[in-house]
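Build the 3D complex.
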Amino acid sequence: MRHRILISGLLALAAALTVLLGPRDPARALDLKAKEYELRNGLKLVVIPDHRAPVVTHMVWYRVGAADEPAGKSGLTHFLEHLMFKGTDKVPAGEFTRIVKRHGGQDNAFTTADNTAYFQRIAKENLGLVMRLEADRMQNLKLTSKDVETEREVIKEERRMRTENNPRALFAERLNAALFVAHPYRRPIVGWMDDVRRLRLSDAMAFYRKYYTPANAIVVVAGDVEPGEVLKLAEKHYGSLINTAPKAERVRTREPRPLAARRVVMRDARVKAPIIQRMYVAPAYPRAKKGEAHALEVFAQAFGEGATSLLYRRLVVGERIATWAGAWYDGNNRDYGTIGIYATPAPGVSMERLEARLDALIGEVLEKGLPEKDVKRAANALVAEATYALDSQFYLARMVGDALTTGSSLADIREWEARILKVTPERAVAAARAVMRPENSVTGLLLKAEPSANAADARAKGPAAAGKPAREKAE
Amino acid sequence: MRHRILISGLLALAAALTVLLGPRDPARALDLKAKEYELRNGLKLVVIPDHRAPVVTHMVWYRVGAADEPAGKSGLTHFLEHLMFKGTDKVPAGEFTRIVKRHGGQDNAFTTADNTAYFQRIAKENLGLVMRLEADRMQNLKLTSKDVETEREVIKEERRMRTENNPRALFAERLNAALFVAHPYRRPIVGWMDDVRRLRLSDAMAFYRKYYTPANAIVVVAGDVEPGEVLKLAEKHYGSLINTAPKAERVRTREPRPLAARRVVMRDARVKAPIIQRMYVAPAYPRAKKGEAHALEVFAQAFGEGATSLLYRRLVVGERIATWAGAWYDGNNRDYGTIGIYATPAPGVSMERLEARLDALIGEVLEKGLPEKDVKRAANALVAEATYALDSQFYLARMVGDALTTGSSLADIREWEARILKVTPERAVAAARAVMRPENSVTGLLLKAEPSANAADARAKGPAAAGKPAREKAE
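Done.
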């Protein structure tokens, strides 16, 4: 929507609720009375009492994301998300946000590869109001051709500003498209420009009718409320909604067996700091074997998160061949996660040399393992980050919605911290070893364009300056 | 269908009719009276008299191919092609082919990225018979769940044998998927295995109803017939068919601006002769600027087709660093063509050295141009190949169907030879220069798997044996 929100990893999210509800104080989780309900039309409701302030966060999640779009219509989920602010017979265009504001609240929306969410943060006595507004637009959206034309231009401009004009965003987009061979995660969430240009009123309405049904929605309410009272309000506002379409199947091509290491070399005159970035397709939380995603999370944290990580200590502090280096695990998707590693060469260091050292270090860690104290510190750091994230009611609600629309459960969230703390160095490295195979990877080089580019450019070369790595999600 | 036919380039096809109809004897083209008609239901008919033998080739073309498939349903076009032999109320499963055989004819079908075609070759007096059969299955296909189950297994086995068990086919598939960033040409025509597994009766029937309509079909008849008599037969058999769906739009994502050279390195224990293969996205005949595709055709022929080509003379005969080397242009698609270059290193020559020489040679040719005599010889060779292809009535009909379903016209075919012969060395190289840019390419290495594969594998290395290159279309 107007102010886009980047979705951070499950890390912070899962951590937030885990610490709140987690095993360190299981009684407290029960005290919170996080309750799940299902209305007769199939709409799911989750209520998370949080009495620190007299406010509520109200979110409506739809189990549809960019990875569910029809062929040639990438960007449609995000397009519809924008159009959902265009209004209904009862609430004219733009009025939704004005009503929320008039009551002192804020509202917005976001789209990921797996889900679409609309939310408001508002004084608790207005929960019924925002439920009425959301229920209304779940079934009564009215679009005109003009709405669609206007919003398409807004999105094209958004794409131009955020992606086309940003070499790192373009680089991330192309790397992602090379990492996934067949699965729709390879497509940008905002859509390929050529597809966005062709999105039409009929596309948006067909998508809306297919996916915006009560049985495909999850309402999450966190705040200064009691579950029983929220259930009553939900029944009042959402209970009478009708399923206008059968529950939509999510048809997504799974990745074929990984067979070939890939490489993407992009040159752009606007690049100031060259980057090398390696990515691997990894299991995601909802589909990983027990403890596997947790092991990858701890591995990535120990190997490359922050200035205390092994990668940083070795390449930046010790050998001084990189000005920046890091790694991450993103397991916060329905079908696949990623492990990523990035570095920027120090002045005078060639990309080839940096890559060779990076490869050697990866090889060494996968063979010899990680120091136990690094793994312990990583697990503790993950839990500590979670403690920090705890403060946000918004994150809390978002984590629950995100988990439930991607195939995780509240139980998975509750067990997260315990599983993180149980990860041994052996388990962390074994999980990484299974993922970090060349044929399962793409290696990207983002380089400053040189005048003499020629057909040999797909190989690494060239000097380098300093800078920060790209680590954005495509949305 | 049962005996798959690989689609060769437009080259031989276009050449066939061009020589038959072409500028060297324009009067003869008129003598042939190649006639186009349109029935009232929108079905197009092309008749090409060919009185050399008392036979006809009857083809029904549908303007739908693998690039038109819904998301997550790759392989559906080919799946439906198989299912079209399952029968109707009047013609039970398997009966179609038996009837054709009983009358001394042959029949088959094929699927490409852009179209699907069914054909029979039969004695001319049976033209009405095969028209009746094709008209019947254009509207009355009956499928059972068992048909669908059985045929899905047949196709999975076809994919296993032709692709999964063949490292070169796998390599070609992954290269292709890396060459096209967003356009559906990146998907294999037979489909990703995961998609094939999920193809259902309802998918096939929805696709059939949407695309198998008279207004979306082109009937091509070549043979010992007169246009007027064929038109009467076509009106009798096809004229009463009803358009059960509006003419289907072909929604295909165009490629985003090329930005990054890509690289695919595949190791397989079954590889005997390593290969390097470079591919570029090029304009295709139907969408190229005037003469541009012809210039690329001549360039590829002069640069790399056969033992007299510059590439072969230099790398195989002269420097002896390759045992095989070649290049091709394939412009026979609706949206994009490709230029490809491949080589196999001579014993003892490293892939790195071969690639460096290949790059240097490409650079040299793009900068300094091609010898005039090579270009002349290439153009003449293309025309000569066409003369050879001329003999086949089947090719003749296929070329016309192919052209008309991808956006070319009979006039384009007629002008082909003249345009080929007009290509100058400057024009050929200028066209190649616009296409053969690193950011527009993928470079693939197919290597014998070594025991010590590690994370640095995305870079070229290793010794090599001898062999022939892969140059298959994915279908």
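Residues 10-238 of chain A form a domain with the Cytochrome Bc1 Complex; Chain A, domain 1 fold (CATH 3.30.830.10).
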